[in-house]
């Protein structure tokens, strides 16, 4: 039986690996986005908000997150089945529905707690795309299920949380993975450091839900569905808010859309 020092070393190693995997995934995505943006500029192409969004999604959530996750699994001699990738059962779907509701309750609760303090929150960079062309939000609805949910959950739940759970108990493993998932959104936010940290704090709550449903179902498809549905709903609501603002029916619609997108 390993002694305390052995367990401590194993846990530190797990945290370091989790940080490296998440960091490499994000860095790879950012490099790809930068490289493709430079290539478009050299070709004299002035990309629309939609094109920029596609480049970002495919590069980060698709190629980078998915690629790093698959390389990690191959390095450890494992398959996608080892992270619980399988068709969901009726029980899994019930977890997905419950997780979807819980994610919104968690996000709203976190936002309420933060609003009581009066602290300013950061804004998601998607708001900038939406302000130029609100229709990009509609494209993000299917993208939430096809790229965002699966890509982020494969890396942060299947790999990061899975690695942490090898040495940590259930609760600390989920908490650590959720904290890392929320923190990685820092670069996706705009505004001062204080506002970004406020938003990250809010994001931590739905992240806990994603991690919990994965832990309970042991099926990666479940948090992917929950995450995808959560994001898709926020994108759809933000689109409606912007259109209502443009029509004059809801003057504060733009601010509402920014608040919704900050919960992503």
UniProtKB/TrEMBL annotation:
Question: At the top level of its lineage, which domain of life is listed?
Answer: Archaea
What are the protein's GO molecular function terms? endopeptidase activity
Query: Where are the membrane-spanning stretches?
Result: 12-44, 50-73, 93-116, 136-156, 168-188, 194-213, 220-242
Write down the InterPro entries for this protein, in alphabetical order.
Rce1/LyrA-like_dom
> Which keywords appear in this protein's UniProt record, sorted alphabetically?
Membrane, Transmembrane, Transmembrane helix
* Gene Ontology terms describing biological process: CAAX-box protein maturation
- Segments forming domain CAAX prenyl protease 2/Lysostaphin resistance protein A-like: 136-232
Instruction: Please give the name of this protein.
Output: CAAX prenyl protease 2/Lysostaphin resistance protein A-like domain-containing protein
Originating species: Haloplanus vescus
């Amino acid at each position: 039986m390993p002694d305390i020092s052995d367990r401590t070393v194993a846990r530190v190693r797990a945290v370091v690996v989790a940080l490296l995997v998440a960091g490499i995934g994000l860095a790879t995505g950012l490099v790809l986005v930068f490289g493709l943006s430079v290539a478009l500029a050299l070709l004299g192409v002035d990309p629309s908000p939609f094109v920029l969004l596609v480049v970002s999604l495919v590069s980060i959530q698709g190629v980078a997150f998915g690629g790093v996750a698959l390389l990690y699994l191959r390095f450890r001699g494992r398959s996608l089945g080892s992270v619980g990738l399988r068709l969901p059962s009726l029980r899994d779907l019930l977890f997905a529905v419950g997780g979807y509701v819980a994610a919104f309750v968690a996000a709203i609760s976190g936002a309420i707690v933060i609003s009581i303090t009066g602290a300013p929150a950061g804004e998601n960079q998607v708001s900038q795309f939406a302000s130029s062309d609100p229709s990009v939000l509609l494209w993000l609805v299917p993208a939430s299920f096809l790229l965002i949910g699966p890509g982020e959950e494969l890396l942060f739940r299947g790999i990061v949380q899975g690695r942490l759970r090898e040495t940590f108990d259930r609760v600390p493993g989920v908490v650590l993975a959720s904290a890392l998932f929320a923190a990685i959104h820092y670069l996706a936010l705009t505004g001062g450091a204080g506002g970004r940290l406020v938003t990250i704090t809010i994001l931590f709550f739905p992240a806990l839900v994603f991690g919990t449903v994965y832990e309970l179902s042991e099926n990666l498809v479940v948090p992917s569905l929950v995450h995808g549905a959560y994001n898709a709903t926020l994108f759809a609501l933000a689109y409606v808010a912007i259109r209502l603002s443009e029509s004059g029916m809801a003057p504060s619609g733009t601010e509402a859309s920014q608040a919704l997108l900050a919960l992503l």
